[in-house]
Design brief:
alpha+beta, Phosphorylase Kinase, domain 1, Transferase(Phosphotransferase), domain 1, 2 domains, three-stranded antiparallel β-sheet, globular
Amino acid sequence: MIEEEPELNIQNLKLKSPLSRSIIESMPRRMLHQGQGVGASIYLIETEGRKIAVKDFYNTPLLFKNLIAPYLIHREIRALQRLQGVTGVPEFYGRLDRFAFALEFVEGKPISELAAEELTQEIFAQVQQAIDGIHERHVSHGDLKRRTNFIVTPQGRVVVVDYASAVIGGRWWRPVTNWIQQQMAQIDNKAVAKIKKLGAPDLMTQREWDLLNQPTPLEKWAKKLLKR
């Protein structure tokens, strides 16, 4: 069983010079997403021949920034650390401070923007491989209903991004969290079928239709709670 792991200074293993907010702010950067309200901003920098994305809550409202953002940053970092080395997961370059972290910038386009003829069996195989690798580390992504969380690079590599909703299990002292993680993993496993249904329905198998038509225990509970 996987136990709680300390936060590692992974950036020192991949970059010659550790990143910090002061260093980042001295660099040219391009805004990729301007956060609104409590949303994080994401911007692009380049250093040591690498393109790096920075997720940053620094400019969010003060109360949220100081009370909530550090928890969200810590949780997403822990998921990324647990998943380092999994095929289809971006490289993590380290925490900048309580409000931001850096990771691999994945150049490409969301799988939702691919034409039906571009949605090949190889693409679907990579999607499932990434999901399986994530689950093998006792992590569920939690937001794979958003096809924008699958990026396909010009080389045809599929990368799963945005681990803000990830749930980490595999810790014996947290049985409820473990159960939630396992239930979320069942929902994650519907991703390939959902992508096919919306982008290439002709490729759907009967098993995939059945998978989408059979709600998981957590989905049943949620629908009951919302009275849908």
